[in-house]
Amino acid sequence: EQRYSIQNTQVAFCFSETIPAPTGKNEAQQKSDLELLRI
User: Fold this and answer.
1) Which residue has the higher pLDDT, 32 or 10?
2) In degrees rounded to 5, what are phi and psi of residue 19?
3) Nearest to residue 1, comparing CAs of 25, 9, 36, 15?
4) Residue 1 pLDDT > 70, yes or no?
5) Distance separating alpha carbons of residues 6 and 21, to the nearest angstrom
6) Does residue 11 register a pLDDT over 70?
7) pTM for this prediction
8) Local structure of 39: helix, strand or coil
């Protein structure tokens, strides 16, 4: 049971860590695209 709880917390932590990543990358990409279009 201990192993399962540890794995569960690790998975939850990784999952919460990856949620904001895609939006940040998309925003950064959009900003860079806009800058390229300005040039």
Assistant:
1) 32
2) -65, -50
3) 9
4) no
5) 23
6) no
7) 0.30
8) coil
